[in-house]
């Protein structure tokens, strides 16, 4: 999946902007009183002001080059605490996806994922920088009936159901 633009509401635009621009060093693409957008590789991440607290929070993923997984983790860990499981693990390998990932919260409590997909031949010989983000490749949506939502998206958008 390659998401060209992802728009998410937030009730604290200033904190989100500071987190992504100052901590994660993503380039600010546009800024207005009620929204701003960031460039993340070939994807645009746009936050729009909302008076409501979006619940549940969002989960989305950025693709990173597989050869930069360790350096990306070190880079992010210096700027935001990584999420851990009950055993203290802070990164995971997913056999079915053939990918490695780590997670952290943004300023609004959204779960951000950096994922290195081993099937994408996108290696670099350099240490990670924010310019190495490739795209947004996932967005998690909370729905009452996952199978029905999958069918609806498949029919309406022509998207195949992965699993």
Short description:
The chain has 163 residues and is of the alpha+beta class. The protein has helices spanning 13-23, 69-77, 146-157; strands at 5-10, 28-32, 35-40, 43-49, 59-64, 92-94, 99-105, 111-117, 135-140.
Topology, number of strands: 9
Question: Could you tell me how far the N terminus lies from the C terminus, measured between alpha carbons in angstroms?
Answer: 14 Å
Rounded to the nearest angstrom, the radius of gyration is 16 Å
N-to-C series of helices and strands = EHEEEEHEEEEH
Please indicate the percent range of residues in DSSP E strands (runs of 2 or more).
25-35%
Shape: globular
Which structural category do the helix and sheet elements fall into?
Answer: alpha+beta
In the predicted model, the low-confidence regions spanning at least 5 consecutive residues are none
Strand line-up in the sheet with most strands: 6-7-8-5-9
Number of continuous helical runs: 3
Task: Write down the overall mean pLDDT.
Answer: 92
The biggest sheet amounts to: 5 strands, mixed
The amount of helix comes to 10-25%
By oligomeric state, this entry counts as single chain
């Amino acid at each position: 999946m390659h998401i060209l633009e992802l728009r998410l509401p937030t009730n604290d635009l200033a904190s989100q902007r500071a987190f992504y621009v100052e901590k994660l060093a993503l380039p600010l693409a546009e800024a207005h009183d009620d929204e701003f957008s960031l460039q993340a590789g070939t994807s645009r991440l746009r936050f729009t002001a909302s008076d409501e607290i979006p619940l549940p929070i969002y989960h989305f993923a950025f693709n990173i080059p597989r050869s930069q997984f360790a350096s990306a983790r070190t880079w992010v860990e210096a700027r935001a605490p990584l999420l851990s499981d009950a055993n203290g693990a802070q990164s995971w390998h997913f056999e079915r996806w053939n990918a490695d990932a780590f997670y952290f919260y943004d300023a609004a409590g959204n779960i951000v994922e950096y994922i290195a997909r081993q099937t994408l031949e996108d290696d670099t010989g350099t240490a990670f920088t924010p310019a190495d983000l490739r795209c947004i490749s996932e967005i998690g949506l909370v729905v009452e009936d996952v199978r029905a939502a999958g069918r609806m998206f498949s029919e309406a958008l022509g998207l195949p159901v992965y699993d």
